[in-house]
Amino acid sequence: MNYYFQFVSYIAFSSSLVIGLFASTPNVLFIAIDDMNDWAGYLSGHPQARTPNLDRLAEQGVHFTRAYCNAPSCNPSRASVMLGKHPNSTGFYSNPLPKELAPKKGNKSIDLRRFYPDKLTLPQYFSQNGYSTFRVGKIFHYWGDWENMKVKKRDLSFDVHTYGGGKPIKPDKYLSGIDFSWSFTQEGVLSYMDWGAIDAPYERFGEYSRASIIVKEMNRAHDRPFFAALGFYLPHLPWYYPKRVLDDPALSHIRNVEDVLLPQLPNSNDGYDIDDLPKIGQKIAHGGLKPRSVNYERSYRNWHEAITAENKWQEAVQAYLASIYFMDLQLGRVLDALEESAHANNTIIVLWSDHGWMLGQKEAWRKYRPWEQSIQSNLIIKAPGLPTCAINNPVELLSIWPTLTDLAGLPMKDDLDGRSLLPLIKNPSLVWEYPVITAHLDESGKGGWQSVRTDRFRYIKYLKTGDEELYDHHKDPNEWNNCANSPSYLADLNRLAALVPDKMTVLGSWMKSDSQVAGHNQRSKDVSDK
After folding, report:
1. Catalytic residue set
2. pTM of the predicted model, to two decimals?
3. Which residue of 180, 225, 322, 414 lies most exposed, with the fewest beta carbons within 10 A?
4. Helix, strand, coil percent values for the chain (each to nearest 5)
5. pLDDT single digits (tens) 115-152
């Protein structure tokens, strides 16, 4: 059974309307941003966020004030966008493999091509429809689309591909002053959870290099329309940013760490919002390896305790905001180059972030969580002939593939789980009552959860325990008051609960082969790496 509910009330636009939008086949600039929540100027997620280039793109196109991922983790979120399938269809819920499938040693991440070797991806679909495809940076989890995670010279989905960015900058100590026990070097010198200013020129940072490469790729000679994908890594951890970013006049208001504003919290005695969560929700909020002070004098139960005890909360927020601003500067270089090129008037731009990020709300840090700040994403679409507007309806990232199909005037793939946003874009007053379902298999082994977002509510169910949460966004936009046990919300609770499955889908369950792409992918497996 496919638990991701399908809606058949798709409003079709005639091919003549779509063709009329473009003088010729449009190019596509496909921009993914990692770990970017709603702390952007155009979304007003944090009053001190400065994102002039995101803001100008939002003003020039259609921006969605409530766009949500379908999984709050890099691997499954990107897989859902690139396959056009919901995690409840594929069983692709988390970054790592389920414990029963994970190797004892080596890379434990889910390899998309191990479970779905014959499935068409979004750039392959454009390639089959006459496009050249190239990719710079992180589009899939890790740096490519392989049938073997060890093979990093191959990317089945793109004709030309590179991670770009050169070698990451590696300081010789934890700049944050906290050891989060989450290192990606054997020596433990560099931690994924770390932050701080680096005294190095912009050109040393990966985001600058990736922007430079995509500009060069767009400007080379093309004999076909192109699908250009750019994956920005920041504001993914670690938040290492050029020291001179804080010297920029645009960030003068957060140059001094004591001026940095913390996320908005409820007016309670302790200042936090966690007491009305079920125990499993509290455990997920506090999930993560146990940190300690760098001198090993103190150990902490969770990240939030460490950050607050070490008086580092404002510093962490400052680093996240600075990382966003630096990424935005590089986005501006790309947008400027496109505007100055021959492709300026014939290129669709879609910009999205794979999920949100929490910085202390509900004492939670990182993604992986079922609440608003972890799930809300960025989504902006600019295309020739489209109006400029803001759309406030909840929408999902699964809609990217069918929307691009409509905008490019291509035939619609018949097994996509999402629906095109073009009808809503053309008529923002259109009744659009499609809930967004987000799902995740908690990486700490506490089971899976499903989270439903409608215009008014967020409903959460933890499938292992049956515990529930319900938030009324008309009264409680910050999700501070769990109404799941309130009799007055019982009908709403039951209605939303009916939308989620009773169990998580098994990875690999989407078995039907896609004949259009099977041959290409199978042939690629026979190519030896030299």
Report:
1. 74, 141
2. 0.91
3. 414
4. 30, 15, 55
5. 888 899 999 999 999 999 999 999 998 766 665 545 55
